[in-house]
Amino acid sequence: MLLVTKSQKETFELGKGIARKLRGGEILGLEGDLGTGKTTLIKGVARGLGVKRAITSPTFVLMKVYKARIKGDNNAGKRGFFVHVDVYRVKDEQGLIEIGLEEYLGKKDTVAAIEWADKVRRLLRGKKVIWIKMGIGKKKENERIIKIGK
Ligand SMILES: Nc1ncnc2c1ncn2[C@@H]1O[C@H](COP(=O)(O)OP(=O)(O)O)[C@@H](O)[C@H]1O
Ligand SMILES: [Mg+2]
User: Each residue of 105-141: b (16+ CB within 10 Å) or e?
Assistant: First the structure.
């Protein structure tokens, strides 16, 4: 699915829309250069999952865990977690294993979103990842092209 947004707000709203479809256990793998809107989209997802704390970029801490509302299979909605990971600075995947990322991936009560996920493909191997590829539009400065699914 290919989508185009025309402002930061639209990308945020798209993130909220994606969140409505999530049940828990999903891993969102975001690809795309700096400034393509990965963090913006993730902020929207977080808002959609009821995260109340402000989302700040985890570039230096690699991973942040927030309390969230997870729908579950029965759509009831229960307490769970939203995990935001940014592996931009990660050189090898061992560091991510050490901070315990793997334990969150695919957990039923957790939605994870990973910026620069293509850098840690090995860690994600065998896991079901919803790939979201972001790019800058060719014509307009504020245009972003967002491809969901491979
Ligand atoms: N359509 C758009 N969607 C998202 N961000 C946009 C858009 N148009 C312009 N921008 C700008 O692009 C930047 C995106 O930043 P950010 O979400 O941090 O990207 P990334 O995490 O990919 O580096 C922001 O400065 C934002 O104002
Ligand atoms: Mg970012």
Answer: bbbeebbbbbbbbebbeebbeeeebbbbbbeeeeeee
CA dihedral 105, 110, 111, 113 (to 10 degrees): -50
CA of 127 to the centre of ligand 2 (A): 22
Q: Which residue has the tokens 């699915």?
A: 1
140: pLDDT strictly greater than 90: no
pLDDT for position 30 = 98
Ligand 1 is surrounded, with C-beta below 6 A, by 5-8, 10-11, 32, 34-40, 115, 142, 144
Residue 76 Cα to ligand 1 middle (Å):
33
Query: Is 105 within 8 Å of 127 (Cβ atoms)?
Result: yes
Kindly give, in sequence order, each residue whose CB lies less than 8 Å from that of residue 34, ignoring residues fewer than 6 positions away: none
Q: Write down the mean pLDDT value for the chain.
A: 92
For residue range 83-121, list pLDDT tens digits in order: 999 988 887 777 777 778 888 999 999 999 999 999 998
Residue 36 alpha carbon to ligand 2 centre in Å: 8
- Other beta carbons within 10 angstroms of residue 99's beta carbon come to 13
